[in-house]
Amino acid sequence: MTDRQITLSHAAIEALNWPPMTMAFDRPAHLPAPVQVGDKVTFTFSQTDSGYQLVHIAPLR
After folding, report:
1. Burial class of residue 54 in the structure, from the number of CB atoms within 10 Å of its CB (0-12 exposed, 13-18 middle, 19+ buried)
2. CA–CA separation, 37 and 3 (whole Å)
3. Element (H, E) at 55
4. Buried/exposed code over 4-25 (b: 16+ C-beta within 10 A; e: otherwise)
5. Cα 15 from chain centroid (whole Å)
């Protein structure tokens, strides 16, 4: 894991037929990481040639 990755535990993602799981997502350099360990967040991601990359992440309020 690098400082450009964020590990998230997420609920099932029906559209991808994924069960609930914990996985690391790449974080682009321009995307700040405004969250702390243990925060509940909302996020979006896209698939790239090297894996899954965060597009947006923000703490739930």
Report:
1. buried
2. 13
3. strand 51-59
4. ebbebeeeeeeeeeeeeeeeeb
5. 16
Q: Which residue, among 12, 6, 14, 3, has the nearest Cα to 59 in the 3D structure? A: 6
First to last CA, the chain: 27
pTM of the entire structure?
Answer: 0.76
Kindly state the tokens that stand for 2: 């690098």
pLDDT digits (tens, 9 = 90+) for 3-55: 778 899 999 999 999 999 999 888 877 777 678 888 999 899 988 898 888 88
Q: How far apart are CA 61 and CA 46, in angstroms?
A: 23
